[in-house]
Amino acid sequence: MTLRTYPRFITLEGGEGAGKSTVLSALREVLRETGREVVSTREPGGTPLSEQIRGLLLDPHHETPTIDTELLLMFAARAQHVRETILPALERDAWVISDRFTDASYAYQGAARGGDPVFIAELERRVVGIAPALTLLLDVPVAVGLQRARGRGAADRIEGERDDFFERVREGYLARAAAEPARFRVVDATQSPQTVAADAVAHMRRLIGEVS
Ligand code: Z5A
Fold this sequence. Notes:
Distance between the termini: 28 Å
Helix content: 55-70%
Largest sheet: 5 strands, parallel
Strand content: 15-25%
Number of strands: 5
Number of helices: 8
Bound molecules: ligand Z5A
C-alpha cells in the first residue's frame, strides 16, 4: 500500500524549542480568517487515548523503554490519531495542522536512536497510510533550540537526552527534507518569531492557492 497524500494536511517538524507551537497558532489564525475549518492537533497525542500514550512516552519515572517499545507506542498513538481525528477532518475537507507526525519517528526513533528505517517505513505503510502535502521543518541549531526549551523548566524523558542525540535528530530531519523537496519547506527558525511565522504562512498560502 502506498501513502495517500492529502492536500489540506500540513505538518510541523523540528527539534526542541524550534517554535512549532508558535507557528501553529499563526497558521491556524490565517486559515480561520479565510473562513476555512481547521483542526490543529499534535503528536504524540491528538485523541484521549493517544494523549494517555503520550503520558507514558514522556514520563521520566518509568523504566527506560527499548527502541522498539518507544517506536511502537509512537505508532500506536499515531494509528488512533489518524483514524479518530485526522482522517475524519480531512474527509470533510477541513484543513489539518499537526504539530509533528511520522517524520518525527524517522528523526527521533530512526536517526537519533538507531531504529531501522525500513521497519519504520513498514509501520508507516501499514498503520498510518497517509502523508501531508506540506511539511514545514523549523530548523534551528541544537544549542539555540535547547536553550529556548530548557528555559521552560523540568525536562520530560526525551528532552532529557544528551545534546548529540538532538544533533542526530536535526541531521535526520534535514536528510528527510533533502530527500523529499516537493513536500518539505525548511524554515530558518533562528529568526524572530514574527519572521518565522511569516515565512511559514507564505508557504501555506502557496499551498492554499494550489488547493482552492
Ligand atoms: N517524538 C518522538 O520521539 N517521535 C515521534 O514520532 C513524535 C514525537 C511524534 C514531544 O513532542 C516529544 O516527542 C518530542 C519528540 C518526541 N521530544 N522531545 N523532547 P513535542 O512536540 O510535544 O515537544 P517538543 O518538541 O519538546 O516541543 P517544544 O520544545 O515545545 O517545541 P516547539 O513547539 O517547537 O517550541 P515552542 O513551544 O513554540 O517554543 C519554545 C520556546 O521558544 C518558547 O518559550 C517560545 O516562546 C520560544 N520561541 C519560539 N520561537 C522563537 C523564536 N523564533 N525566537 C526566540 N524564541 C522563540
